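User: Hey, quick favor. My workstation is busy. Could you predict this chain's structure for me?
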Amino acid sequence: MIKPDYIFESSWEVCNKVGGIYTVLSTRAKTLQDEMKDHIIFIGPDCWKENDSPYFREEKSLFAEWQWEAKEQGLKVKVGRWTVPGEPIAILVDFTPYFEKKDQIYTWLWEKYAVDSLHAYGDYDEASMFSYAAALVTESFYQHYKLQNQRVIYHANEWMCGLGALYINNKLPQIGTIFTTHATSIGRSIAGNQKPLYDYLFAYNGDQMAGELNMQSKHSIEKQTAFHVDCFTTVSDITANECVELLDKPVDVVLPNGFDNNFVPKAATFTKKRKAARQRLIQVANALLGDQLDDDTLIVSTSGRYEFRNKGIDVFVEAMNRLRCGQELKKKVLAFIEVPGWVGEPRKDLQERLADNKSYTEPLELPQLTHWLHNMSHDNVLNLMKYLDMHNRKDENVKVIFLPCYLDGKDGILNMIYYDIVLGNDLCIYPSYYEPWGYTPLEAVAFKVPCITTDLAGFGLWANKEFGHYGEITDGVKVIHRTDYNYSEVADAIKDTVAQFSAMDKKQVDACRKKAEALSKKALWSEFIQYYHEAYDIALTKAEARMKK
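Assistant: No problem, here it is.
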């Protein structure tokens, strides 16, 4: 296999924690940094301007000569380290100066690659100008350090970085280009617009659907980038099918999302953190509910982006409702929905109760919610709970609490980060309808928490493949079969699995937890990085063949 001497990797989520791609890149960084020794360079947007980024440490002496030259060329860059394991080099670029040139840039894009930018709206311009700036950074660095005799890769993530990949493809054809779509923009849109995606996938025309759903520009840049790069990739077999049907382009390699478990606490520290998480979750619940739940309570949760249908938040609430109304449970259940909504502020009445540290026998008003929302009357979670008459009454065995904020340790109620909270769960539930991979279940099992997911998530399909059968909760991961139309059956399967888990004794639960952890170790980057080497080889081979013509 041909190995690269340098890799430039661009993403909107480099040093910018907004979604799952941040986890992909930041956990993979150490593996590549160990191999490449500062020859892996991540390029991200400078969203912080004059403020200090919490994920980036500037080093003005790094590539000092080039930094000066870049400034002379009109590039506004900050060079330093991404403060994640491995501390790889990161370059943050200010893309705002290019807005005034966007018409010329889009004209060039249309003339060279037939990319339709006429229907752009929302974040399209912002992403495209960043992508263009990232390519200029790569070009400037490449010329300054005379990398013409080196094997160089430019790796673009998601449609947001497509323009940069096409620019490199055109201006520096000796560089091998890779494009990874983590989810097709049109597939996510079809699913998010309540249309059946899977049964009709073979019949959908991506271009036609893009017009119908007002997604022409994002779909166009994604499709043309997929066709013109040297190596087109995605993150799971399920999304690979989508690419064939909606982008009319098969992927060259599937790059499953691995995991770096360095930040999972070990032994005694793990036990201490798990105990602290459980205590805090129960303390918050008791203050909100006016209840006296104890450590024997089964704590379950779902989390992720607030995509009500795509992430299966709707079916999670329905399953908890059915559990509440049934007789199967052997323990009380405390269920958390940890999904950032349009959050206003932490509840003062709840903060006061937590500060008092007393026992209360009466619930607070609206005991389903830890933070006030700006759109209380239009919130999907609250409206579904209201419709199902779920009000966390005293005599009910299932209590559901909505935590509608980022768990960054500063939310005003829990005040613990997500990774310190997730290990306090007994069971995590992610019944996704649209999930190209699924980091949340992988994170859960890495923290020894058994989980429930579906076979419409890339992770669920991968788990089934590893087990050689559909995962059961006794395997550490229960994988539920999900289709466009079996919502009710999925809700019942979740209800039955939680009830089954509530009846397990300590020995059975410990066995489940061990199997969950064992599965997570098969998804470490040390196992999955081989697929990236395959992609680098394909891209470099094509680039070298191109230069020989």
